[in-house]
Amino acid sequence: MSVTYTCFRCGKSKTVALSTYNKGDKKRHFCSRVCNLQQLNEELNPTRMTKETRHKLSIARSTTGNGKTYRKLNGKHYHRTVAEIKLGRKLKPGEIVHHLDRNKRNNDPDNIMVFINQSEHVKWHAQHDEHFGRNKSVVMPNV
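Request: output the structure for the sequence above.
Response:
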Protein backbone atom coordinates (compact mmCIF):
# COMPACT_ATOMS: atom_id res chain seq x y z
CA MET A 1 0.00 0.00 0.00
CA SER A 2 1.32 3.47 -0.86
CA VAL A 3 0.60 7.04 0.18
CA THR A 4 0.93 10.24 -1.86
CA TYR A 5 1.76 13.41 0.04
CA THR A 6 2.92 16.97 -0.59
CA CYS A 7 6.41 18.06 0.49
CA PHE A 8 6.26 20.37 3.51
CA ARG A 9 8.94 22.65 1.99
CA CYS A 10 8.62 22.77 -1.81
CA GLY A 11 5.10 21.43 -2.45
CA LYS A 12 6.13 18.56 -4.75
CA SER A 13 4.02 15.39 -4.65
CA LYS A 14 5.70 12.16 -3.66
CA THR A 15 4.42 8.61 -3.39
CA VAL A 16 5.97 6.22 -0.87
CA ALA A 17 5.13 3.00 0.90
CA LEU A 18 2.83 3.40 3.89
CA SER A 19 5.51 2.00 6.21
CA THR A 20 7.97 4.69 5.05
CA TYR A 21 5.35 7.42 5.44
CA ASN A 22 4.60 6.36 9.03
CA LYS A 23 8.26 6.53 10.11
CA GLY A 24 8.61 10.32 10.04
CA ASP A 25 6.96 13.30 11.65
CA LYS A 26 3.22 12.94 11.03
CA LYS A 27 2.82 16.65 10.21
CA ARG A 28 5.94 17.28 8.12
CA HIS A 29 6.93 15.08 5.20
CA PHE A 30 9.62 16.06 2.70
CA CYS A 31 10.26 14.96 -0.88
CA SER A 32 14.01 14.58 -0.25
CA ARG A 33 16.73 14.81 2.35
CA VAL A 34 17.84 18.09 0.74
CA CYS A 35 14.43 19.71 1.38
CA ASN A 36 14.42 18.38 4.94
CA LEU A 37 17.92 19.74 5.70
CA GLN A 38 17.19 23.11 4.08
CA GLN A 39 14.08 23.47 6.21
CA LEU A 40 15.98 22.54 9.37
CA ASN A 41 18.77 24.98 8.53
CA GLU A 42 16.28 27.83 8.03
CA GLU A 43 14.56 27.05 11.32
CA LEU A 44 17.72 26.54 13.38
CA ASN A 45 19.86 29.23 11.71
CA PRO A 46 17.43 31.92 10.55
CA THR A 47 20.16 34.59 10.20
CA ARG A 48 22.85 32.31 8.79
CA MET A 49 24.63 33.78 5.78
CA THR A 50 22.33 36.64 5.04
CA LYS A 51 23.99 39.66 3.40
CA GLU A 52 24.26 41.31 6.82
CA THR A 53 25.87 38.23 8.40
CA ARG A 54 28.28 37.87 5.48
CA HIS A 55 29.28 41.53 5.81
CA LYS A 56 29.88 41.20 9.57
CA LEU A 57 32.03 38.10 9.04
CA SER A 58 33.99 39.83 6.30
CA ILE A 59 34.80 42.78 8.56
CA ALA A 60 35.67 40.53 11.50
CA ARG A 61 38.07 38.44 9.44
CA SER A 62 39.54 41.19 7.24
CA THR A 63 42.53 41.88 9.48
CA THR A 64 43.30 38.34 10.63
CA GLY A 65 45.53 37.29 7.73
CA ASN A 66 48.39 39.76 8.31
CA GLY A 67 48.33 40.53 4.57
CA LYS A 68 48.96 36.90 3.65
CA THR A 69 45.47 36.08 2.44
CA TYR A 70 43.21 37.13 -0.39
CA ARG A 71 40.10 39.20 0.37
CA LYS A 72 36.81 37.62 -0.60
CA LEU A 73 33.54 39.04 -1.82
CA ASN A 74 30.56 36.70 -1.30
CA GLY A 75 32.88 33.69 -1.14
CA LYS A 76 34.86 34.62 -4.27
CA HIS A 77 38.38 36.02 -4.29
CA TYR A 78 38.09 39.77 -4.79
CA HIS A 79 40.99 39.98 -7.25
CA ARG A 80 39.20 37.50 -9.52
CA THR A 81 36.08 39.70 -9.49
CA VAL A 82 38.21 42.76 -10.36
CA ALA A 83 39.87 40.81 -13.19
CA GLU A 84 36.46 39.83 -14.59
CA ILE A 85 35.33 43.46 -14.55
CA LYS A 86 38.59 44.51 -16.22
CA LEU A 87 38.20 41.85 -18.94
CA GLY A 88 34.46 42.41 -19.33
CA ARG A 89 33.76 38.67 -19.03
CA LYS A 90 33.86 35.78 -16.57
CA LEU A 91 37.22 34.11 -16.02
CA LYS A 92 37.61 30.80 -17.79
CA PRO A 93 38.51 27.65 -15.83
CA GLY A 94 42.26 27.51 -15.30
CA GLU A 95 42.91 31.23 -15.82
CA ILE A 96 45.31 32.70 -13.25
CA VAL A 97 45.08 36.21 -11.78
CA HIS A 98 48.48 37.69 -10.89
CA HIS A 99 49.29 40.76 -8.75
CA LEU A 100 52.14 42.67 -10.45
CA ASP A 101 53.42 44.24 -7.21
CA ARG A 102 53.10 40.92 -5.28
CA ASN A 103 50.71 42.58 -2.81
CA LYS A 104 47.71 40.24 -2.54
CA ARG A 105 45.59 43.04 -1.13
CA ASN A 106 46.29 45.57 -3.89
CA ASN A 107 43.39 44.82 -6.21
CA ASP A 108 43.78 47.90 -8.39
CA PRO A 109 42.89 46.87 -11.97
CA ASP A 110 46.27 48.23 -13.17
CA ASN A 111 48.02 45.86 -10.73
CA ILE A 112 46.21 42.75 -12.01
CA MET A 113 47.29 40.54 -14.90
CA VAL A 114 45.46 37.45 -16.21
CA PHE A 115 47.23 34.37 -17.58
CA ILE A 116 45.48 31.69 -19.62
CA ASN A 117 46.95 28.95 -17.40
CA GLN A 118 49.49 28.25 -14.66
CA SER A 119 52.16 27.32 -17.22
CA GLU A 120 52.06 30.83 -18.75
CA HIS A 121 52.15 32.31 -15.24
CA VAL A 122 55.32 30.34 -14.44
CA LYS A 123 56.94 31.39 -17.74
CA TRP A 124 56.24 35.03 -16.91
CA HIS A 125 57.91 34.64 -13.51
CA ALA A 126 60.91 32.93 -15.12
CA GLN A 127 61.39 35.94 -17.41
CA HIS A 128 60.55 38.79 -15.04
CA ASP A 129 61.34 37.62 -11.50
CA GLU A 130 65.03 37.64 -10.56
CA HIS A 131 64.39 35.42 -7.52
CA PHE A 132 62.32 32.88 -9.43
CA GLY A 133 63.37 29.26 -8.91
CA ARG A 134 65.80 29.99 -6.09
CA ASN A 135 65.34 27.92 -2.99
CA LYS A 136 67.61 29.30 -0.26
CA SER A 137 67.29 26.15 1.85
CA VAL A 138 68.95 24.01 -0.81
CA VAL A 139 72.76 24.24 -1.05
CA MET A 140 74.16 23.22 -4.43
CA PRO A 141 77.30 21.04 -4.16
CA ASN A 142 80.50 22.13 -5.87
CA VAL A 143 81.27 19.84 -8.75
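The first helix runs from residue 18 to 23.
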